[in-house]
Structure formats: structure tokens, C-alpha cells
Amino acid sequence: MAPWLPLLLLSLLSVSSVAAEDAAALAADDECSDDSSCSLSALQVQTKRTDSFEEPERCENSSSCVDNRTCVFKEDRSWSQCVPLDYDTFQKECKYWDRRLRDAAIKEIGMNCSTVQCEYDQDCPMSTVCVSKPDDSWAQCVPLTKKEFQESCVKWEDDFRLAAIGATGFNCPNSRCYSQDWCVRGARCALQTDGTWGQCISCHDDSFQTNCYSWKATFISAAEKACHRKCRYDLEPGSEGED
After folding, report:
1. Cα dist from 8 to 3, 13, 21, 22, whole Å
2. What is the DSSP letter of 120?
3. Which residues form the signal peptide (predicted)?
4. Which domain holds residue 95?
5. Is residue 222 located within the same domain as residue 211?
6. Tens digit of each residue's pLDDT (9 = 90 or more) over 91-101
7. Is 81 helix (H, G, I), strand (E, B) or coil?
8. 139 lies in a domain?
9. Is residue 182 in a domain?
């Protein structure tokens, strides 16, 4: 027998043993599946990244993290890593974490991961709720505070905005309505006859009269019809206010 053959056999057995241990570890992790690539160090699902990325290292406390990051542990403490505290970086990175780490980070920092779908209200931080599109093609956490909701809702697609309005009971000012279903809390959907615009408006006299002077003539007509009241603003013939 060649003198190098026993060494070769020993090396092959060692590699097979390591591969078997790794496979067993991945199989034991319920987050790893046939269509997901897993990190052996973190045992977490990794979405394929296209940006520059270094594999995260485990942290023991926040003192081991660079500035503007904090150490977050999974609930079972099976893994921890430094996560960003600023919103933009958090949104960029959170979609690559496994769910248990993401849930822990959301709870620890109180920041929503808007780049990842939610499944339950428990996936969302305090003062937010999980809202799904009618066809369940997308879901995300939506603010339950009026100011934050109205700042965000104008950026959403129409079908998701309608679902969010129904879930929260907030109107979305400066966005289009298509029927009365889009308006809540006594607001009325004023639809222009030419079909180019519709908007939820308040029909309370003080609010109506305060706002109507700035509307275009075509929208004033729609608003007057929706609210059954006249705008006292004397619009000059041929002139139009701003939207």
C-alpha cells in the first residue's frame, strides 16, 4: 500500500464527518429549507445580497458594537449580532435577518422593518398593526398614530392604502379616493365629474369653508355636491385656486 494512502483516507473521513455535522445542524434549524441558503455560523436564512457584505459576528453586549449599533439577542439566545440604530441602515439590513432575529430587533429598538412582510400583529412594533393587501400579495406594519399614518399613506399603492384605511380608521389626506369606501370618520369622497380626481373632505362648515377657497373650480363643484353645501368663497370667473 502506498504510504500516502492512509493519510488520504483519513482526510476524506474527516471532511465527510464535518459535512454530516453541518447538514445535521442545518436540518435541525426550522428556518433552513431547500429554497433558502443558510449561514452556518448564525443558522439563519440569508437572502442573496448584491451589496458589499461581511458575515456578522456574534456579540456579547453592545460595547462590542461599532457606533450607532446595539447588540440584539434572539429570544432563545441562540444567536446575537450588532444591529443598526439608524432608520435607513436598519431598513437596508433587516430584510436579510431571519425572523427570530428580526423580531428581537424590532422589539428591542422599536423600529419596524418595512422591507419585509409581516404575518401577524405580533410581528410589528408597538403602535403599529399588520395590514395585508386584499389579495394577500403584500403585508406590512402600518402606524396607528394619525400623524405617522398620514405621512406614510400617500406613498402606498391604492389597494394597500384602502386596506390600511379600513384597518386603522384614518383618512389619508392629499390622496385620491374612488368611492365612499375610501373615506372614514364622517369624511365624504368628492369625485369630479370628469373622473380625474377625487378626495376625502370634511363637510363640517368651518372646515369646508376654510379649505374650499384653495380648490379648483371643478373640485369645488364636486365638494359642494358631496357635502350638500355651498362654498362661500367668491371664485373669480375663469380663475382657479390651487389643489
Report:
1. 10, 9, 20, 21
2. S
3. 1-20
4. 56-116
5. yes
6. 899 988 988 89
7. strand
8. yes
9. yes
In the block, cell 405621512 appears at 151
- Please indicate, yes or no, whether residues 76 and 89 belong to a single structural domain of this protein: yes
Report how many domains make up the chain. 3
CA 191 to chain centre: 30
Indicate the Cα dihedral angle 214, 220, 225, 231, nearest 10°.
60
Q: Give tens-digit pLDDT for 184-212.
A: 999 999 999 999 999 999 999 999 999 99
At position 10, the amino acid (one-letter code) is L
pLDDT of residue 70: 96
Would you state the cell numbers that stand for residue 178, as one nine-digit string? 374612488
Could you tell me if 43 and 23 are in contact, meaning their C-beta atoms sit under 8 angstroms apart? no
Q: Which has the closest alpha carbon to 159: 141, 176, 184?
A: 176
Please report where in the chains the cell 365612499 appears, as a residue: 180
Distance CA 212, CA 188 (A): 14
- Looking at this protein, which amino acid is placed at residue 39? S
Q: Does a structural domain hold residue 16?
A: no
